[in-house]
Each structure stands twice: as structure tokens, then as C-alpha cells.
Amino acid sequence: MAILLNADTRIVVQGMTGWAGTHHTTQMMEYGSRVVAGVRPGKGGRSHLNLPVFDNVRGAKDATGADASIVFVPPASAAAAMLEAIEAEIPLVVTVTERVPALDMLRVREALKGSRTTLVGANSQGVLAPGLSKLGVMATGSERPGVVGVASRSASLTSEVVAQITAAGLGQSTTVGVGGDPVHGLSMRECLELFLADPDTRGVVLIGEIGGAEEQEVAEFVTGAKPSKPIVALIVGAHAPAERRMGHAGALALNGAAAAAAKTRALEKAGVRVAPSADLVGRTIADALARAH
């Protein structure tokens, strides 16, 4: 069983008529995702990719029963798109847009409090339930249905780790890109909790990196919860130059708690197995699962 979405999830695409929206909507539909409509203010009543286009999310939801949205909207307008989806009570919203202004995202975080919406992102590669649905921009081909949940801050390493897990014969229950920007929705800890509650996820892989405190929050949670399912982590950026942003807005190399070494120590102290290198993640989770049974 996947977390967050399934084969019946009905998807509306905000910004579908632009190049990125068109390209990735096509790929999602080819994967088998149930895309039911697009949203583009001023283009309501038209058709794109043989799907109806609406002026707003509320109209799209009312007409199609959509229960998920994906946002392909430029950074300056992305927060408004997320707020519109939250106000329309869309249960799941994925935002691909990178580097949404932090103040805008703080407003979005406030709107999420007490709402019916789970936001994944911004700067997320999306959510992938192998063989069921793809809500995002991640590469496909190496994923397989299976028992390992993956939560990642790094888009590029996700594909590598998914391929390793498949090669180990384990497959994935769901892969979630939690988002690489400093302020985002679903946290790595919250995603881990969803995987731990999923009866079909037997183990979890976390792909962390320098910057922020998400990995320390995971360590604190694991220390208190003492989950029985094995958890393997990979922390990248150990050799990043200090005080320099690496790759995207959330990966900022600093000394102290945000550094890779501090994150690794915290996770290991909590009982999480940390893979020694990126090429050993699949082997590490396979070994952890074998030891657990």
C-alpha cells in the first residue's frame, strides 16, 4: 500500500498549459496517473491535452472530484497557487517550483495549520507509488513495487537509491521528495511517521543533506518512538565548502548542527543505520531488513 496517493487519486495540474506543465502532465498520464483537469486563470473553458481547463482550483475540484494537485507555477506566483489549493481543500498538493520566496512559504505554512491539505514541497520532485501513480517530475524506469519507503531531500540521488533498492529485490512502497527549499510542507519526520504507520512498508530509507535541522528532528523522533522497522539514512555534503549554498536553496554548508557530520552522529545515536556512501544504500537497507527478521 502506498502513502499519500494511489491508483484512484484524481489530479488537477495548476499551470498545466505552460511548457513544464504540458511536458510533465504528459509523462504522468503516460505512467497511468489519473489527471482529470488543468488550472490556468483566464483560460477556463478551454481544453489542453484533451483535458478541461478551469480558471481556478475550486471549479476544477467541483467538476472533477480532484483530490490532489501539482503546482507548475513560477516562484513569484507559486504561493498564491498553493494557497488557492489549500482554500479549495485539496487533500494533497505537490509543488515542484524551486526557490519560492521564504516569506511567501511562511504564509503558506500558516495557512496549512488546521487545514485539510498535506503539502509536499516546494522544490519537490513529487510522490511516486510504483505501478500506481506518479505525481511529480521524477524519472521512472528503475522503480518497482515493494516494501521500502523512500523520503528524500535530494532529487538526483533519489533515482540512484531507487535503482539500488530495486536491484536488491526489495522495491519501493512510495518515494517522496520532501522538498529542498528551506521552508516547505511535509517534513522528513512527518513522512517517516507515515511510512511507519503503513503496514506494507517494512523499512525506510532517508536521503538527507547539509543545511537545516530535519535530520536532527528525525533523530529526536526515533529516539522517543523506538520504531521496530529498520531505518537507513544517507547524509550527503560531507565535503562541501563551508558557508556556501550547494545545488539548491536548502543545502547550505555550515558548521555545527547543519553540517553532515553532526547529522550523522545524531542519527546513529538514535539507532538509525547511516550508509557509509551513496553506492551502498541498497545493500545497507537489504542487510537491515534481513537482520530484522
Can you put this structure into words, describing what you see?
- Its EC number is 6.2.1.5.
- This is Succinate--CoA ligase subunit alpha.
- Keywords: Ligase, Nucleotide-binding, Tricarboxylic acid cycle.
- It comes from Methylopila musalis.
- The protein is of the alpha/beta class and 293 residues long.
- The chain has 2 domains: 10-120, NAD(P)-binding Rossmann-like Domain (Rossmann fold); 141-292, 3-Layer(aba) Sandwich (Rossmann fold), CATH 3.40.50.
- The protein is built from 9 helices and 14 strands.
- The protein has helices at 19-31, 57-64, 75-87, 102-112, 155-167, 188-197, 214-225, 260-270, 281-292; strands at 10-14, 34-39, 47-48, 51-54, 68-71, 92-95, 118-120, 126-129, 133-136, 145-152, 172-177, 203-209, 231-236, 273-274.
- α7 (214-225) links the parallel β12 (203-209) and β13 (231-236).
- α3 (75-87) runs parallel beside α4, α5 crosses α9 (281-292) and α7 (214-225) packs parallel to α8 (260-270).
- It is globular.
- The mean pLDDT is 94.
In short:
The protein is an alpha/beta fold and 293 residues long.
Write the SSE topology:
Elements: E1 10-14, H1 19-31, E2 34-39, E3 47-48, E4 51-54, H2 57-64, E5 68-71, H3 75-87, E6 92-95, H4 102-112, E7 118-120, E8 126-129, E9 133-136, E10 145-152, H5 155-167, E11 172-177, H6 188-197, E12 203-209, H7 214-225, E13 231-236, H8 260-270, E14 273-274, H9 281-292
Parallel strand pairs: 1-2, 1-5, 2-4, 5-6, 6-7, 10-11, 10-12, 12-13, 13-14
Antiparallel strand pairs: 3-4, 8-9, 8-11
